[in-house]
From TrEMBL:
One record GO biological process: proteolysis
Domain Peptidase S9 prolyl oligopeptidase catalytic: 471-673
Protein name (database record): Prolyl oligopeptidase
Family annotation (SUPFAM superfamilies): alpha/beta-Hydrolases, Peptidase/esterase 'gauge' domain
Taxonomic source organism: Gordonia neofelifaecis NRRL B-59395
Length: 679
């Protein structure tokens, strides 16, 4: 591949010249946008939402305790802590702090960002703690002794890498990391930057001596292994993710034999006891019957391995309804579905699969399952919220019903705010839903349209704490588009927009933008759009292909150079979504929208704020840097801000997140807002 890109030097993430460029571009953006009283109010308001002690401390049950990770003004890096259910139910739970990340960072002189804890089941006496420098995906791993509240002297530790590690038992783990040597002499990491091999590592032994139990290919996205330690049903599974959406899965027997689990490579499946549940992501013919994508089937797992395909249909999609999630309690299968992007929840009795009543759930709310404890009980934890209703936490059982035990405070006055659903018609005639949230006294005016449109991620209604305070309460209209590429209507809503179908994402979003204007809700000059990551790519396409539809765009941690995206950081893992630019046939359709290549001096571009993070080791900051450099080369004005920390989320703590949010909203009020509308 030839590349005459004059800005390749900006891909040197921490190069002196590149960082000098970053600082030189940050300064004018900060000087322009942060000096006003409104910016101070926006930042303070966002930080209050993120830091308030009154928000729900969400928990996960691990044995007899409930565990929580918490950030606030006094602990910006966070506390890992636990409590008992009886205490948690009260207004002021008694928290037992296990790890103070702020204290640890100060003690070690590292900018640690919490990246998660994996506990040894079922004793939950040890935990594998992941800590990231500055919020990157790459992390160090250390073993923590929960009872002694100290790092295990004989613990499993891994240096900074994009590792995968999980418990087999108290003294054994599966680990994939950037090994110094591999038995086959091939790289330890895939071309996507994730582990290619998995080893079984025993306590007290050298990682280099740990035997390899499974290996994928360099061109894969990743290889992994997991031990299902369910009492009476202990099984080991390994897999090769051949691309982002397809995998080859096996059961690993004690003698090392690999038994292929012969489900479609793009299906999602779960083995629970002797039940195999399979969610088809493409049409599937099973036992003489044809099923559409999005169907959930259950089989007898041992019989399935022997070739028996006798099954039961647990969920069948229709043109309005899709399955979003499923999980188990001890007695029930829990199904969460969307009907025109509205949540429904079902409980099915295990074995008979008959429905049982669901009691205690709020009406007109988006409901999600947070946690269950299927080995021991029918306990279930759920979240519920809407655009105008602050989140609530529900707890109970699938046998006796659930009830609200915690509620978040309201962060803006939603008593005179309403949400409506409309449908736009895309270029091919498809009806595309979107939600409009605004004060009841606002008929038309500044409007912010948010979109993502990729990787089967559904954009469901949820509380708009920061947006409510920073935009809606000030008179702005907030819109969320449920465009193709997401999963709102099941897998096909996504798969039709992969690779050569990518244009459907862009056409859908543009159709929503036009529909907002046609309905009189806004004008092109007052319409802004915002998106991050894959949504940042969407913003780049809007800037270069549909600039006439928008007055301003906020483009965050974006992909923009689709000619080189697969060569940068984790980009190779997304070729199943976008295509391979090195394949001439696939570059043909990618080139039709790649924003970096489509910047033409004669084409007008809306006002833009482009933001990214130096520490983002998933989407390379070079995308944003080069796009801005090319805009400036063409004489365009553009605001740029790059957080030196923050990872793919763009912020390493709540203060950084509040600053980033205020920067975006100040930019929007200055461009499409002009003057705020007070009550």
């Amino acid at each position: 591949m030839t590349n005459d890109d004059p800005y390749l030097w900006l891909e040197n993430v921490t190069g002196d010249d590149a960082l000098d460029w970053v600082r030189a571009h940050n300064a004018p953006t900060v000087d322009e946008l942060t000096g006003s009283e409104r910016f101070a109010d926006l930042e303070t308001g966002a930080l209050e939402v993120l830091d308030t002690d009154e928000r729900i401390p969400y928990v996960r049950r691990r044995g007899e305790f409930l565990y929580n990770f918490w950030r606030d003004a006094a602990h910006p890096k966070g506390l890992w802590r636990r409590t008992a259910l009886e205490s948690y139910r009260g207004p002021a739970p008694e928290w037992d702090v296990l790890i103070d990340v702020d204290a640890l960072a100060a003690e070690e002189g590292e900018n640690w960002v919490w990246a998660g804890a994996t506990m040894n089941r079922p004793a939950y006496d040890r935990a594998l703690i992941s800590l990231s420098r500055g919020g990157a995906d790459a992390a160090v791993v250390r073993e923590f002794d929960v009872e002694s509240r100290s790092w295990a002297a004989d613990g499993f530790t891994l240096p900074e890498a994009k590792s995968s590690v999980g418990w087999i038992d108290r003294d054994t783990v599966y680990v994939g990391t950037d090994f110094a040597d591999t038995p086959d002499g091939l790289p330890a990491m895939t071309s996507s930057g994730y582990p290619r091999t998995v080893r079984r590592w025993s306590r007290g032994t050298d990682l280099a001596d740990a035997p390899t139990v499974f290996a994928g290919e360099v061109a894969d996205v990743a290889a992994g292994a997991v031990c299902d330690s369910t009492p009476g049903y202990v099984r080991h599974f390994v897999s090769r993710s051949t691309d982002f959406f397809n995998a080859l899965d096996y059961e690993l027997r004690p003698d090392g034999e690999l038994i292929r689990i012969d489900v479609p490579t793009d299906a999602h499946f779960t083995v629970r006891h002797d039940w195999l549940t399979v969610l088809a992501r493409s049409p599937w013919s099973v036992d003489g019957r044809d099923y559409p994508a999005g169907t959930l089937l259950v089989f007898d797992y041992p019989a399935y391995l022997d070739g028996d395909r006798t099954h039961h249909v647990l969920f069948a999609p229709d043109e309005h309804t899709s399955l979003q999630d499923y999980t188990y309690t001890r007695s029930h299968l829990v199904l969460v579905t969307l009907h025109d992007v509205a949540t429904r929840v079902e409980f099915r009795r295990l074995g008979t699969w008959e429905p049982d009543p669901v009691t205690g759930l709020p009406e007109l709310a988006t409901v999600g399952v947070l946690d269950t404890d299927p080995d021991h009980s029918d306990e279930i934890w759920l979240s519920a919220s809407s655009f105008t209703r602050a989140p609530s936490l529900l707890q109970g059982t699938t046998t006796d019903g659930v009830a609200v035990i915690k509620s978040s405070p309201e962060f803006f006055d939603a008593s005179q705010v309403s949400a409506q659903q409309f449908f736009a018609t895309s270029d091919d005639g498809t009806a595309v839903p979107y939600f409009v949230v605004r004060r009841d006294d606002v008929e038309s005016g500044p409007t912010l349209l948010y979109g993502y449109g990729g990787f089967e991620n559904s954009q469901t209604p949820g509380y708009l704490g920061v947006a409510g305070r920073s935009w809606i309460s000030r008179g702005g209209t907030y819109v969320i588009a449920n465009i193709r590429g997401g999963g709102e209507y099941g897998p096909s809503w996504h798969t039709q927009a992969q690779k050569a179908g990518r244009h459907l994402v862009h056409e859908d979003f543009a159709a929503v933008a036009r529909d907002l204007v046609d309905r009189g809700l806004t004008t092109p000059a007052q319409l802004a759009a915002q998106g991050g990551s894959n949504g940042g790519l969407l913003m780049g396409v809007m800037a270069t292909t549909y600039p006439e539809l928008f007055g301003a765009l906020v483009c965050q941690v974006p992909l923009l150079d689709m000619r080189r995206y697969h060569l940068l950081l984790a980009g190779a893992s997304w070729m199943a979504e976008y295509g391979d630019p090195d394949d001439p046939a696939e570059w043909e359709f990618i080139s039709k929208y790649s924003p970096y290549q489509r910047l033409h001096p004669e084409t007008p571009v809306p006002e833009m704020l482009v933001t990214t993070s130096t520490r983002d080791d998933r989407v390379h900051p070079g995308h944003a840097r080069k796009f801005v450099a090319r805009m400036e080369e063409q004489g365009r004005s553009v605001r740029y801000y790059e957080n030196i920390e923050g990872g793919h989320g763009g912020a390493a703590d709540n203060r950084q997140a509040a600053f980033k949010s205020a920067l975006a909203y100040e930019f929007l009020w200055r461009t499409v807002g002009v003057a705020e509308r007070s009550h």
